[in-house]
């Protein structure tokens, strides 16, 4: 079933004229006319406006044409108000962000917490290898740089300078 046929069925279901239907969902009359005639395809916003105004319509049917036009009331027995109340009760039982903080360990360093966990656990206490940072003196850096530059087989072929104004200059050997 084409979308324009589904819109026609929805308008018949609502028992409104196309102009009244357009006013009801908050769109221009011409957009209804163009969609019913098949000239235009509806936007997601257009479909959302229909679904918002007529929540009893089935999303899948409205979008694809598959399934039933109306939501089966027996499958969705809780009303929207009951569903909202259920959500609120679930939210009340869920902890908030700050209740998840272990007050006893708040402010302790990470290493302290790890050592406490290691002392309390039955796993073997294997320490991670320590990584030592070596301070390199400036003279050492120069020595390493000079060793790398010893490769005399490499020669410069081309140098390109790019300027901020978008121009460039190329120098070739």
TrEMBL record:
Gene3D superfamilies: lambda repressor-like DNA-binding domains. SMART domains: HTH_XRE. CDD domains: HTH_XRE (cd00093). Residues 116-127 have a biased composition (Low complexity). The lineage of its organism: Bacteria, Pseudomonadati, Bacteroidota, Flavobacteriia, Flavobacteriales. It comes from the Bacteria. This is Helix-turn-helix. Residues 110-152 are annotated as: Disordered. It comes from Epilithonimonas pallida. Residues 16-62 form the HTH cro/C1-type domain. Residues 131-152 have a biased composition (Basic and acidic residues).
């Amino acid at each position: 079933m084409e979308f324009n046929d589904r819109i026609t069925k929805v308008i018949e279901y609502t028992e409104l004229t196309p102009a009244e239907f357009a006013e009801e969902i908050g769109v221009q009359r011409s957009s209804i006319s163009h969609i019913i005639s098949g000239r235009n395809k509806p936007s997601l916003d257009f479909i959302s406006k229909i679904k918002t105004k007529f929540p009893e319509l089935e999303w899948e049917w409205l979008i694809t044409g598959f399934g039933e036009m109306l939501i089966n009331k027996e499958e969705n027995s809780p009303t929207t108000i009951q569903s909202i109340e259920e959500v609120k009760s679930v939210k009340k039982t869920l902890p908030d962000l700050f209740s998840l903080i272990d007050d006893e360990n708040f402010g302790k360093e990470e290493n302290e917490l790890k050592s406490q966990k290691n002392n309390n656990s039955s796993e073997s206490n294997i320490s991670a290898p320590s990584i030592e940072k070596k301070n390199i003196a400036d003279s050492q850096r120069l020595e390493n740089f000079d060793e790398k530059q010893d490769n005399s087989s490499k020669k410069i072929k081309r140098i390109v300078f790019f300027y901020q104004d978008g121009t460039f200059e190329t120098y070739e050997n």
